[in-house]
Each structure stands twice: as structure tokens, then as C-alpha cells.
Design the sequence.
């Protein structure tokens, strides 16, 4: 996860401005006050002006997150917008930009016990200046990720070769560094899927004129995939929920355009054989359908199963990662989609979804527990756009619903299942078992204070928007 200094979150931290003192002139005496008020009056019937926040009414009056380190709250106006919120925001922002001001649109109840909604325009001082740099870090991480994926792909190649020529497999294993080229099919396919996913986010952000970085790839040679995925940095806040949906949904949808063909090609070139001891990759609806399309039947059928090659494993990994990203909570892509559709009401789904994932991890899929803990550490944080009033149009509503349905189709309830088939030669140990041990040991190695610092680091980084 990477720090997005320009992103905004809901219900996280309250920006307050201290009441005027002898050293600070009242906001009404700010030379820009009349210009600000006239601009706001151009889009809103003002019913109330707010210039200071006390502890008693702060949570109800002003719940904002700093969208930039140099941004501070000036004043707020409450009332009714006289123009559609999207055009009203564009008009107000056009005036504010020359004064180094930034408007935020929010909607709240007129009274705590009332269902009537009222609009609020918050005026912040300090425009967002997208940070630059990071190219060297991105390049280093990319090279390390390629090497890490080549290693995992080569291990997969050794397993495939061992079934045909054990002596050759042992020779390759003894000269692993010289044979990393054998992992090119896996590394190339998974990099293509992850790269397409992140570039989907990136180009959607560019379409909405939102500054974003190119992807950061995360190496992890001790895992079963060779990577922890990738992420881009959103370097300024998204304008409204339309942008939030487009940027959030573009990644998984574009990634699937590459993952599904790779799965089909990989399965078609993999062999079907008698089930033996080892880990069996879990089925999602789409992966099960792909096996039915390729083999004409559902596998495993209790006797035989497909032994996935590098391409099939890369495609399955792509589907698995997409399914995790589409879980509709917090800072995941699914969380962005759900918030764009339901707004603050999406928060009510957080604990039921987390509860379901915990139940799943404690019953049939223990491997999901680490992921669930990570989501819990991040918390129920959402990337809230500058204009949180403008709803999705009908076409985007359907896209949001379709994206959430795709989550059901690609999510893998049981990622890896250990199958033990006793035989005269004993029970073989899949090499991927050994690759998972260092990862588990690294988690257990964390001392208590290290874990606390890790939690604080993750939460601080994820207070700012991330597209994974």
C-alpha cells in the first residue's frame, strides 16, 4: 500500500479550525470572504454559515479528511443547491481555483431525527499539488518482482518436468539461477494480468484528469505467486462518485479480459491425470466453467484432475487476486465500487462481510485469515470524492452492480485444499508447501512491538486512497 496524500476518507479524522483569537483574524475579515460567499450563492441558497467548530457539534457539522498536508478548513455553508450538484461543483471549483481554494460537497440530515437532507459546501484553503517521482523505486520493485515470479514459474516448471524426467528436474533444481528462463510463461502471463489491471486504473484516472502513478509491483518470492500484487498511487482526490466507480472498476474488468483467455489456454495445454497427494487449487464459478468448456466435464471428479501448467496457474492466480480485490469492503476495488453505488450506507456491509470471511477462514480456508487480518487492520475506510453528492447515472449503476456480481463469479471460497492420497511410496510433498513456510515463519517472527508498529504503518498509509 502506498501513501496517497491527496485522497479523502470519510469518518476518519475531523479537521477543525480553532475559534478566532487575537492572533488570527475572523474568517469574515478574510479579503476573499465576499468572493467566496458570492460564488457559493451562485449555486446554493445559503441558510447557515459556519466559521468555527467546537467539540460538541464538530462530528455533526464537519467530518472531513485532509486532502493535502497544506490544506486547512476555512468555513462551511449549509443550505439547498440551486443547480445539479455536478455542474454546481464545476462552477464553484472554477471560481475557487484562482484563489487557491478547494470546495467539498457533502450531504447530511437537517436535524439528527429528521429525514430531510441538506447540502453542505466546505471551503478548504490549499489546492492539491500532485507529488512527482517514484520512478526509481517502481523500476527496482518491478525488476525484483520479475525475478520473484521467474523463480515461482521455474519451480512450477520443475514439477512439470519431474513427472516426465526426474533426473532432468533434479539437474535444473541444482542450477536454479541458470534456469530461471523456464519460468517465463508464468511470469509473463501473471505480469500481463496484473499490469492490465493496474493500467486499467491508471488510464481511467487519466480519463477523469486525476493524477496517478504508474504501477508499483510488489515482489514476494516465498509465496505461491511470487508477488503480493501491485498498486497505483492516486495523487489527487477524485472529483465525484462517477470517477470513483470508473477508476475502481476499470482495474478488475480489464484484468479479467486477459485472465480468462490465459486460463482457457493454460487448461487446454495442461494434462489430466489421476489425483495424487498435494494441493488442489480451488474453484470459482468462472474457473469451474472454464474447465467444463475445455474438458467437457467438471474436475476434479474424484478420480482425475487437471495438473495445471504455468499458464493455467498464472491465470488462476489472476482470477484469485481479482476475487480478493473485489471484496466490497474498505480500500479494495470492490469497496470503491460499493461506495460509489451506496455512499455512506456501504459502511453497514463491513462487519457482515468481515464476519463471513472470518467464518470461511476458520472452517474451510485458513489461508484467507492473513488477508482478513490485513483488511481488519486497514479498517472500514473509504475513498470519499470531493463531490460526495452527485450520484451515479443509470449506466454506471448497472456497471457497479455487474462488477459486484463478477465478484461472486471469481471469488474462490477455498483457495488451496490439501489432498492426501496414501500409497506404497508414501505421501509426496508438493514444492509449494516448502515455499509457504518462510512466509508463515516471517509472520510468527514479528515481536509484539514490531506488530504494533506494523499495524500503525498500514493504517497510516491506507488513510489515503489506493487502487490495488
Sequence:
Amino acid at each position: 500500500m502506498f501513501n496517497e496524500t491527496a485522497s479523502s476518507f470519510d469518518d476518519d479524522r475531523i479537521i477543525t479550525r480553532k475559534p478566532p483569537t487575537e492572533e488570527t483574524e475572523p474568517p469574515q475579515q478574510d479579503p476573499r470572504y465576499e468572493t467566496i460567499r458570492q460564488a457559493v450563492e451562485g449555486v446554493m441558497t445559503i441558510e447557515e454559515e459556519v466559521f468555527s467548530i467546537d467539540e460538541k457539534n464538530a462530528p455533526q457539522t464537519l467530518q472531513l479528511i485532509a486532502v493535502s498536508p497544506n490544506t486547512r478548513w476555512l468555513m462551511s455553508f449549509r443550505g439547498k443547491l440551486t443547480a445539479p450538484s455536478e455542474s454546481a461543483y464545476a462552477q464553484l471549483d472554477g471560481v475557487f481555483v484562482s484563489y487557491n481554494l478547494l470546495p467539498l460537497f457533502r450531504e447530511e440530515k437537517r436535524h439528527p431525527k429528521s429525514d430531510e437532507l441538506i447540502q453542505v459546501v466546505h471551503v478548504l484553503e490549499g489546492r492539491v499539488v500532485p507529488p512527482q517521482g517514484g520512478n526509481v523505486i517502481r523500476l527496482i520493485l518491478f525488476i525484483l518482482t520479475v525475478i520473484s515470479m521467474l523463480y515461482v514459474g521455474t519451480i512450477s516448471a520443475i514439477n512439470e518436468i519431474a513427472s516426465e524426467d526426474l533426473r532432468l528436474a533434479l539437474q535444473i533444481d541444482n542450477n536454479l539461477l541458470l534456469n530461471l528462463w523456464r519460468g517465463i510463461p508464468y511470469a509473463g502471463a501473471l505480469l500481463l494480468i496484473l499490469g492490465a489491471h493496474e493500467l486499467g486504473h491508471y488510464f481511467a484516472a487519466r480519463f477523469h484528469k486525476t493524477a496517478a502513478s504508474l504501477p508499483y509491483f510488489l515482489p514476494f518470492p516465498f509465496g505461491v505467486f511470487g508477488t503480493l500484487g501491485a498498486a497505483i498511487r492516486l495523487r489527487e482526490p477524485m472529483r465525484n462518485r462517477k470517477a470513483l466507480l470508473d477508476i475502481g472498476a476499470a482495474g478488475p474488468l480489464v484484468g479479467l479480459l486477459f485472465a480468462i483467455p490465459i486460463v482457457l489456454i493454460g487448461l487446454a495445454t495442461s494434462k489430466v491425470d489421476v489425483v495424487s497427494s498435494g494441493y488442489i487449487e480451488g474453484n470459482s464459478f468462472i474457473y469451474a466453467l472454464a474447465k467444463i468448456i475445455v474438458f467437457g466435464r467438471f474436475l476434479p471428479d474424484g478420480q482425475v484432475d487437471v495438473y495445471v501448467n504455468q499458464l493455467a496457474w498464472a491465470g488462476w492466480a489472476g482470477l484469485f487476486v481479482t476475487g480478493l480485490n473485489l471484496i466490497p469492503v474498505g480500500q479494495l476495488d470492490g469497496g470503491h465500487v460499493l461506495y460509489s453505488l451506496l455512499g455512506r450506507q456501504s459502511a453497514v456491509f463491513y462487519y457482515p462481510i468481515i464476519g463471513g470471511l472470518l467464518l470461511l477462514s476458520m472452517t474451510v480456508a485458513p489461508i484467507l485469515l492473513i488477508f482478513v487480518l490485513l483488511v481488519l487492520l486497514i479498517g472500514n475506510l473509504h475513498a470519499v470524492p470531493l463531490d460526495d453528492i452527485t450520484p451515479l447515472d443509470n449506466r454506471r449503476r448497472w456497471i457497479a452492480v455487474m462488477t459486484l456480481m463478477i465478484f461472486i463469479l471469481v471469488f474462490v471460497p477455498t483457495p488451496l485444499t490439501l489432498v492426501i492420497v496414501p500409497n506404497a511410496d508414501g505421501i509426496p510433498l508438493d514444492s509449494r508447501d516448502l515455499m509457504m513456510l518462510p512466509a508463515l515463519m516471517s509472520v510468527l517472527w514479528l515481536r509484539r512491538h514490531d506488530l504494533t508498529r506494523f499495524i500503525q504503518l498500514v493504517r497510516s498509509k491506507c488513510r489515503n486512497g489506493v487502487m490495488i
In short: The two ends are 8 Å apart (CA to CA). The first strand starts at residue 44 and ends at 50. Residues 1-24, 55-66, 424-464 have pLDDT under 50 and may be disordered.
